[in-house]
Amino acid sequence: MKHRAILIAFVVLISFSCGKKDNVVEVQFWNFGGTVNFMKWVRQRIETFNQTHPGIRVVQSDKSWNMIREILYANFSAGVGPDVMTVHANYAAEFGGAGFFYPLNKFPDFEEVKRKYEPNLFESGRYKDDYYGLPSAAIAFVLVCNKALFDREGIRPPKTWSEFREAAKRLTKDTNGDGTIDQYGLVVMGGDKGGFAYRLIPFFLKAGVNFMSDDMTKITFNTPRGVAALKLFADMYQTDHSITPGFLAYTLSEINDLFSGNRVAMSIEGPWFRAMVQEKSPGNDFYTVPVPVPDDMIAQYDTAPTLQDMVMYPISAQSKHLEETWEFLKYIRNEESDMAYVRANLGAIATTNFALNSPEAEQYPDMQVYRHELQHARPWPAHPAIIPIVNNVLAPYGQKAIAGEITPQEALDLAAKEAQEIVEGKK
Amino acid sequence: MRKSTPYLLLLPALLFTFFVLVYPLAQNLVNSFRQVSLIRGSGGWVGVQNYAKIFGDSLFWLSFRNTLIYAIAGTMLSVLTGLGFALLLHEKIGRITSLMGFLYTIPWVISPVVAGFAWKWLLNDNYGIINYWLVQTGIVNEGITWLGDVHTALIGVIVARVWQFYPFAMVMLMAGLQTIPQEQYEAASVDGATPLQRFIHITLPNLRSVMSVLLVLGVIWSFNDFNMVFVMTRGGPINASMVLPVLVREFSFVHFDLGRGSALSVMVFVLLASMSFFYLKVLAKREAQ
After folding, report:
1. What would be the CATH architecture of the domain defined by B46-288?
2. Of the candidates A180, A249, A400, which has its C-beta nearest B148's C-beta?
3. DSSP H helix total and E strand total for chain B
4. What pairs with residue B45 in β-bridges?
5. Nearest neighbour of A191 by CB, restricted to B143, B236, B239
6. What is the pLDDT of residue A418?
7. In the 8-state DSSP scheme, what is residue A290?
8. Is the model's pLDDT at B203 over the cut of 70?
9. Which terminal residue of chain A, N or C, has fewer Cβ atoms less than 10 Å from its own Cβ?
10. Which CATH number does the domain housing residue A37 bear?
């Protein structure tokens, strides 16, 4: 009898604990990456949202930026993904096209929300006729030059490829006289295929190379200009030895260590870099300048495009709480939130007109350069296969060419052939 | 007791085994004959096409070669290192022997992921302590880019693997050393055998069966080792340290081609099952002795 009573009590307890605790809707938010300050800020903002929206509770979970695609695909395929997340804007074509993201333009107040954002940036979250994300952080790839090392050598940040190569050569040296090189001109992220491609392609774009044809049916990056861009890196690595020898294993953390420790003079980075360097080595300053152009294109130095990327917040098409998630999204990306991007160095560039045109934005470090570069920058083509092409085709062949396993011409021809097969659905 | 009772009692264990072992294996086998993509879903039966694709892929052969080197070199070096430490500890040099025995086994109890990260930093070309020592002692003039060079990346992960596996070999070999009859050494000493002769003609033959078990087991475990390589190099640079378990992940979760990933894992499974069969044979032979 006693046992039965305990069993009944246990079952009742379990039933209550499994049921809905209250009338609160839980929204799962997966935050991929970001600087330490940014993640702190997001957490605080969510706390405020939860306090001011009693019917909704946002639960944040921080995930690795490096494994974003596999995490999302695995979870979406199993139907257990988050309601909202942070992703690259170029995921709109792949994930939106595959039906994993919910088209935000289906919400009745979408147009009103859209008007608040800088139009160019907002467009990079579009695939075909649908918009799949609210812009979060705008990114333009630029060249960062270690101020201490450049000033010591008495040189200015480079504008052309020749100046770039020469600066890297001059800044590669044995600083303590022990007979070994301990300072390098350039570091490139090679330990992450996507990260590598994002740092290589700005040189292609600056040289006027298009990744794909406008109708996105032809791969077009293997032009003589493209080969010249890749050859520039190959020569710097193989002939000048001005790129860090171990770059093929480096991720952002090693790059930050080397840069902050004054062991490298240049890197191709974005708005996150200043915040990262300041976290690691307060007071370490650098010049932020546009990526150099080919010598014969110096006239286009101010207008040649770099690579534009953007972090955006899409909503999962599998979400059972679309309205509540949209409510949260409008809050986390409203103008007040965006002002935090210009008031503190979160490692992200604001995306709303309100924040970008505010007086505070003028004070934001490097804002002028980023704003200028974003005016001309180009995003990756909005093709559903763009990420596999970039990560699995362009990056490995590019690395082989720089390491000297094949020539830049062979690398780009082979990469273009494989990429074309992917575009045509043969692979 | 009813006749069915034992079967009913076994049922939970059988169901558990079915759902966590048999079902995933069977599903994996089925997937290997289908076109399954995480992006596009299942595209139906493709026969042995996934297997054919793998055999025609140069990356598979490179990974297979790397896996063989990683497994065989890693295991042999671990066993040799383990043997060295086992012999040292077997000599029982004072009180520190048990302390040293404890210290030497630490790598075995450390998680491979933690060990991988630790070795990644130890082998870092700019700040790693290994390069620092090598340069300080004059062995090399400048730091080696262990994990960033296509020629040294696999060596780097093998070193880490040896560090992690040698304690197991050491413990097994110490147990083996204790079973060697002391009389054999005494008789050899009377006959004027040198320490080296005693080692070659008494110690090694007596440890042969332990060593064969260790070698087979070490190769099987290394063949299946994903963590160390993934954490340290992810198979890079430029696939120079790509091994089969990491390639399975690459096919499945980078290219999102689960069909090809499943086919490769079936191939690895068959290889490992054959090795396990061989291991059991060795074990049976050892027990018979």
Report:
1. Orthogonal Bundle (1.10)
2. A249
3. 14, 2
4. B34
5. B236
6. 94
7. P
8. yes
9. N
10. 3.40.190.10
